[in-house]
Amino acid sequence: MKYQLQPEIAILDENGLTTSSGWAIVYNTNAITNEYLGATYQFLPVGVGLPAQSYLDAPKEVDNDHAIVRQNNKWAYPADHRGKKIYSIGTGTESTVTSIGDISDGFTLLKPNSEFDSWNGKKWVLDKDKQHQYEIAIAQSQQSQLLTGANSAISNLQDAVDANIATEQQREMLKKWKKYRFELNQIDVNTAPDIYWPEKPNN
After folding, report:
1. Count H helices, E strands: the chain?
2. Relative to the CA of 116, which of 21, 24, 122, 198 has its CA 20 to 30 Å away?
3. What CA dihedral angle connects 95, 101, 105 and 108, to 10 degrees?
4. Is the bond preceding residue 201 a cis peptide, omega within 30 degrees?
5. What digits encode the pLDDT tens for the residues 167-176?
6. 150: Cα within 13 Å, side-chain hemisphere
7. Beta strands 36-44 and 22-29: pairing type?
8. Which residues of 129-140 are buried (b: 16+ CB within 10 A; e: fewer)?
9. Distances (CA, A) of 111 to 108, 131, 132, 177
10. Contacts of 202 (CB under 8 A, 6+ apart)
11. To the nearest 10°, the Cα dihedral for 164, 166, 171, 172?
């Protein structure tokens, strides 16, 4: 034939060596992970084999939730969740998937609805006791801060009364602050968040 209209196709023997030079479509993989990288045209002289990490058989197409890797001299299609957020079923802590494969034990793709959720084996459910303990802790902190402010105000006014220099208005304010402190001490923080906080006296 006067003209060659198609490129010469390389022919390889059963040992993977080229018996007739030419071009071949090869499918390349990563040297470390064996993940498929892409297809390229490769010219193969007589007597040589395919470049390392290259194969003649084509992988099949996959969706975004799977990867293509070379395993045991054939293509495999494991799950691929890289870049997705996962959550520890023990703590709810968020992290990002960085490797090919199924989600590790102890993690889920399902996001907790709140910081008080617990994993029941299939889904996140609200842990009402955990939420209540948090609300109690917030109430205890608020009660402590309010009592500190009340004690400071009472101490200053009491000094004036003890020194017999307090005005009538200061004596009345001392009574109001003591009443306020008493009401604060009567609060049961275990009823949080349903707590009525007494109104602070106005100086």
Report:
1. 2, 12
2. 198
3. 50
4. no
5. 999 999 999 9
6. 21
7. antiparallel
8. eeeeeebbeebe
9. 8, 17, 21, 47
10. none
11. 160
| 77 CB-contact burial (10 Å; exposed 0-12 / middle 13-18 / buried 19+) | middle
State the DSSP H helix or E strand holding residue 185, giving kind and residue range, or none if neither: helix 168-185
Joined tokens for residue 27: 């499918």
pTM: 0.67
Question: Exposed, middle or buried, 80 (CB in 10 Å: 0-12/13-18/19+)?
Answer: buried
Contact call for residues 67 and 99 (beta carbons, < 8 A)? no
pLDDT digits (tens, 9 = 90+) for 60-118: 999 999 999 999 999 999 999 999 999 999 999 999 999 999 999 999 999 999 999 99
Q: Is the dihedral of CA 158, 161, 165, 166 positive or negative?
A: positive
Phi/psi at 41 (nearest 5 deg)?
Answer: -90, 135
144: phi > 0 → left, psi -120 to 50 → alpha, else beta; which? alpha
Query: What is the rounded CA–CA span in Å between residue 85 and residue 105?
Result: 15
Tokens for 67, please give them.
């990867």
Cβ atoms < 10 Å from Cβ of 81: 21
Name beta bridge partners: 70. Answer: 75
